[in-house]
Amino acid sequence: MPNRPTRLLVLLPVLAAATAGIAAGQDAPYALDEQAVHYTLSRSTTLYSASDSTRPYVDLGMAEPVWVVENGGRWARVRTRDGAHGQVRSHEISNVWMRISKSRQTLFVYRGGDLMTRLPIDMGYNFFADKEKRGNPNDPDHWRTPEGTFRVVSKNPRSQFYKAFVLNYPTEEDAERGLADGLISADEFRSIVQANRTFAVPPMGTLLGGWIEVHGNGTGQRSNWTQGCVAITDGEMDALWDLVHVGTPVVIER
Prior knowledge:
This protein is of the alpha+beta class. It has two domains: 37-94, Roll (SH3 type barrels); 96-253, L,D-transpeptidase catalytic domain-like (Beta Barrel), CATH 2.40.440. Helices cover 15% and strands 35% of the residues. The chain contains four helices and 17 strands. The strands form four sheets. An eight-stranded mixed β-sheet has the order 10-9-8-17-12-13-14-16. It has a five-stranded antiparallel β-sheet with strand order 6-5-4-1-7, with no helix packed on it. Strands 2-3 form a two-stranded antiparallel sheet. Helix 2 (172-180) packs antiparallel against helix 3 (186-197). Residues 1-10, 16-25 and 28-35 have low confidence and may be disordered.
């Protein structure tokens, strides 16, 4: 999969270890070296002193990876990627992530290395190819689902497709490719990069396309009708709604 230049790159070795079993037809569980890797769920999560929860130590940014040393219920003792040790409130971190297998038209939801559920998904007409640019009714071939490692950047509770998790496509890497290929301008490139670095929804109206979502209104029959999105049933979306957060990693594979 391409390396998407985001803060979640720290999680990629963990996700890569988990997804390596696909070739062998495995689903779960996976033996991960870093099963305790989590990420923060807000733009400012306070890391407190390891011995005193009244003493703020440092503020952690959005989707900052942390490794859980000990989970004590309300509080979790963690270390950061910079080696700082302390404690955070347990509800402010998560290790839930999603893997989408395009060839199997299946969504896998994990907690660390443990598979929680697998769901059939609806996709687009040309779901087996990687996304390159925006599609339209005259060019449905490009209604494709992009491949790589993404994150959820918005949750839409009133989507035209029931509810939706919006992914950060186009990413910085897509912007670099689009600029080199003449699909986007320098201003559009800068806007996409800025949005990705601030965990905002990137510009969706460029020639690279956008609005790639995991949304509801799915049939549960692995049908092909979306414009590059991944659709699950409304009931399945309800079950995932409180598990998936802004910042949740989403790995999409061929």
